[in-house]
Amino acid sequence: MGLMLSPGDDDVTSPDVSWSYTGFHMFREWLAQAEGFALAEMNGFGGEHMWSSVSTTLAPLLDHPDDEGSLAPAQCAAMLPRLEAITDQRQHEGGDHVLERRIDDVRQLVSVMKYCLEKEVELIFC
């Protein structure tokens, strides 16, 4: 069982990205670390820090239920530059298989988000 993020266009050929629930949690922990905070310290993830206490355009992705709901195209558009910057910055560190996996995950997510923008559809969590 796992989680898939896909465009809300009912086209089975649309790009998607998927993880196990544990894998998605580890992906979000990595993104939060890239943004300068620990996900475990945040409200909803075992901590007490409110999301308003961090400044990141990735908050809609990081603070989202795992397997339900969606992100609007405008939210995807707002996150894309930061996700691309993380990929560009981190790919030069190289050599670490976990890092390579995270970068590949970001690239896949960026591809799906760009598709959502092109088709003007939501990014669905299922």
Structure, briefly:
The protein is α+β, with helices and mostly antiparallel strands and 126 residues long. It has four helices and four strands.
Can you walk me through this structure?
The chain is α+β, with helices and mostly antiparallel strands and 126 residues long. 47% of the residues lie in helices and 12% in strands. It contains four helices and four strands, in the order E-E-H-H-E-H-H-E. It has a four-stranded antiparallel β-sheet with strand order 2-1-4-3.
How many angstroms does the end-to-end distance come to? 11 Å
| Strand order in space, largest sheet | 2-1-4-3
Q: Classify the helix fraction into a percent range.
A: 40-55%
Rg computed from alpha carbons, rounded to a whole number of angstroms: 14 Å
User: Major sheet: size, sense and barrel closure?
Assistant: 4 strands, antiparallel
Discrete helix count: 4
Could you tell me the strand content as a percent range? 5-15%
The backbone outline, from C-alpha atoms, is globular
E-strand count: 4
The average pLDDT score comes to 93
Please write the string of helix (H) and strand (E) elements: EEHHEHHE
Uncertain residue segments: none
Structural class by SSE content: alpha+beta
Topology (elements, then pairings):
Elements: E1 2-7, E2 17-20, H1 21-34, H2 59-62, E3 70-71, H3 73-90, H4 97-119, E4 123-125
Antiparallel strand pairs: 1-2, 1-4, 3-4
